[in-house]
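Box 3.1 A note on notation
Throughout this textbook, protein chains are presented in two layers. The first layer is the amino acid sequence; the second is a token string describing backbone geometry. Keep the layers aligned when reading.
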Amino acid sequence: MAAFALASLTACADETEPVSELCPSGRRDGSDIPIATTSAGGTTYYVRTDGGDAAQCNGRADAAYSGAANADCAWNNPAIALPASGPARIAGGDTLLIGAGSYRIGDGGPMQPIPSGPSRAQPTRVLGRSGATPTLVGVAGTHRVLNLDASSNLEVGHLEITDGSDCVYRHSAPAAACTDAMPWARVGLYARASHNVWLHDLDIHGLAARGINAGGLRDWTLERVKLNRNGSAGWDGNIGEGGSNAGRIVLRDVEIAWNGCGERMASGAPWACWAQRGGGYGDGLGTTDTGGQWLIEDAYVHHNTSDGLDLRYMDGADATRVTLRRIHAMANAGNQVKVKGNALIENSVLVGHCSYFKHKFFMTEQDLCRADGSTLQLVTTGHDTVVVRHNTLIGEGAVQIGRSEGNPTDRIAITNNLAIGAPYYLQPDQLSGFSGGRSWSITRYTGNLGWHLRDCPGDTICDLNPRLTNMSLSAFDAVPLAGSPARGQAGAVTCAQAPTH
């Protein structure tokens, strides 16, 4: 997979506002530095397409199979290192280095879990070769292409993970549903009870159900990961009992898109999109009840058939927190972002074009703009602090910022944002509002700009056209034009980011 970057829409600060406050760098403070990229000890094993099976090669040399038995040569499939039955052929702290090419996973059953590394400093590593991105192709209906069940102290990187079929698991349309005759896989990467893991430079796409199915995690970091066009969800945190997470869960430089859709193998195009009312799911990222300190930054989250980032099930504990920074979310069919408990949302562009999927694929009308389609939804639990600052929001939901639950011990600060309304999709004779909902939280509004809205809370200024490059839902562009009153007022339009491809 080629690495991708997020490019600033405009210069990252107005001269009236300091970069250190408005445009945080996103650099690590040391608490979320990934585990080591070089293994202290352990053996390196090799996989390449011209290698041999377990009887022909021992995997200990980066060489093709020469014809001799048990030779120093590479294996021809990662599944030889982690067979479905019997002992693993690699140990904790070893490195499995996979060469360029395509490798079928699941013909003899799913691979067993990757052995845990001895420590955070000595991880087990499963990596694509430098300069090559090997493809692991799930087949035979395998439940998981990569298995991290109870696996800890790991590094997994430079891999493409997909399956061999266009189909979507249990799709309500027979033409889209998987059958036993098709080479499909249900989940790209599965994890449970897994700690100290670094996933990086992964392209997980086209799975019949979920790109990642993971819960019960502690201290996970994802960097430069794509979760696109997976038939049920991008990342589904529901693994059953024991799915709550803890520690630091970090996602940085990620794309999460078109989940709830199948993928055409020939073209990579999405198809067969569906959501809850049609029997599907469709969150880009969704969890069950969870704790942890979540940091998601430099993320492009778009065209998922339900919510974009659904963190509605954070447990609300005092030590639980979500930080969202430089998020570009757009055209998700539900809420673009949903957060519960302590949270900071800053320097982001959220485009609530929640009717995008109207008359497209297999989407039903009832799945468009669900949960009122609010662009950003905040849920409080008591004694929470929520800060929403320097963001640009536009949408066709009931409000741009929805608020629910909580009590007067909660504090919500909505500061220096730009909110742009549109006709409310479910009641098009009404404009959407700036903010609203049934919540007892104490909310303070300062320094905000609004345009084309039903209401203007606090000191919000709503009679000045923000003059952005494009203020339509279908082609929204937050770059301010010359003379825009948003410059130096609502920080998001000078700090938000979008992807380059």
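The CA atoms of residues 24 and 454 lie 32 Å apart. Helices lie at 19-22, 78-81, 492-495.
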